[in-house]
Amino acid sequence: MLQKPRGTRDFLPDEMEARRSVEAKLREVARRWGYREVCTPEFEDLELFTMRSGAGIVEEMYVFEDKGGRKLTLRPEITASVIRMYVNEAKVAPKPIRWCYFADCFRYERPQKGRYRQFWQFGVELIGADTAPADAEVILLAADMLDATGVKYELKVGHLSFMKNLLAGLDPVSQRKVMGHLDKKDFDGLAATLGEMQEPGLARALTDLVECRDLQSAFAIAGEIAERERIEKTISLLDAAGLKYTLNFGIVRGLDYYTGFVFEAFADNLGAENQILGGGTYRLAKLFGGDDAASCGFAIGFDRVMVALGEVKQKREPIVAIVCTPEGRSRALAVARAFRKAGFRTETDLMERGIGAQVSHASKTADYAVVIGKRETESGEVTIKDLKSGEQKTVPLDEAIAGVKINGPR
Ligand code: HAM
User: Fold this and answer.
1) Which residue among 35, 117, 304 has the greatest number of ligand 1 atoms within 8 angstroms of its CB, and so is best to mutate?
2) In the chain, N or C: fewer CB atoms in 10 Å?
3) Of the residues 259, 277, 309, which one is the last residue of a structural domain?
4) Same structural domain for residues 74 and 140?
5) What distance in angstroms lies between residue 272's CA and the mean position of ligand 1's atoms?
6) Shortest CA distance to 321 belongs to which of 361, 352, 366, 351?
7) pLDDT digit string (tens) for 291-341?
């Protein structure tokens, strides 16, 4: 028996319906904030991702060559594509630009619970607004979206300039090494690296900064920061909006395009892979040949949100099964058409079973059976049976349709 590729999943109808209903909630929040959906290609030129992140990222991607010898990759994320699209198509559009997407990404990672090789992100990118209200909007939107799904989480907000200030004296290679340890929360590795560099003062300051949870103390630890006023303004907007979050200056984010604010959300009830959202401010447009537009965005790890939500009992729509004798078959089709026109999920017998077998099948799969037998064919009425209560009545078609409860019994 053939199997699906490692790290991918199949979704049966029940799961797809649950996913679509959570997706609809996210879409609705994005719509209310004015974010409009965009779509970019599933694969891109490899260069789009290596330009900023270097060749190392190739290890984590599905890279291939097409028949024309072009180096391509399945997208590992969507921010770079969206900014490429902005540069290609929308440079002159009125700013700010509010875009969102719901799409699959591919990363060549070691699969485990909550970590897949194909996974979905719901993301937003706000392009061309370089202000505190812009950064605050995106962070507030992130919380609004997660709240809409019902997932329980903790939101952590940080800013890279604190860490950058502390590490300013190190060469770029050492900086990357330290940031790498912080991103992986590998504090032993961090201590060892700083030990080798003979930087005990720095080690202490970094530990203080990572543990610090209030803004003024962070300024005291990291020293004078050019963006201080802007940072304070953004944070005061978040507080004024009543956002629940903690400050965390140890957030450095794996993707290395961020320039200022960075934020992450963690689900309360997931194991190791509990990060359900990541984002921040960045500048990529110039690198891709456009203007130096400031941007801020985030992506929700949709699959992790679904895992965190667990089994959510969906209110399924009622299912109507049309049951008929051979002579009632053509009328059954007209009756089915009428139920479908009225908006109901309606199924007819395709197995040419006897009427008894049809009713027994309907009792396993549907909420209502609409019987078109000899009597109904003669009278022009239909018999509708509520399969849960067993109640049944013979009535005109309109009345039967009106009697189906939208939030059916099952
Ligand atoms: P990211 O943190 O790499 O950021 O990914 C965003 C979210 O995608 C993660 O927080 C996680 O929930 C989910 N995710 C990542 N890898 C996997 C995986 N292998 N399996 C399941 N879920 C996964 C970005 O991708 C940025 N583009 C976010 C952004 C948008 N920054 C600015 N705008």
Assistant:
1) 304
2) N
3) 309
4) yes
5) 15
6) 366
7) 999 999 999 999 999 999 998 777 788 999 999 999 999 999 999 999 999
